[in-house]
Amino acid sequence: METKEAFEVVKSLAYGVNPVTGEVFAKDSPYQDPTIVRALFEAVNSLQRRIEWEKKKKNQPERAGVAWSDTELKALLDGFDSGKKLEELAKLHKRTVVAIRARLVMLGRLEEE
Fold it and tell me: Tens digits of per-residue pLDDT, 31-41?
């Protein structure tokens, strides 16, 4: 099940509606109990954050957030020292320009802004 589908099902339950039939649950239904409703809304909020994270992740380069290997660090330094621009290095390493800049600062090749 996709996160968006789970979100819609849990949201429907949180609002006291059967996600399959669209019927409102009876007052004595467990889905109308305040403790259950609060828990379901917590789940809705968590799923919403997950959806936003998935969207953001989808727009990131392939290696965003992946640990740097020694080989990759050497290639980054070699590329930077040979005059490649940050944008070019970002494409080469499949990372963001921000990540490239941060790594070069950490390695002492650039000053912090």
Answer: 999 999 999 99
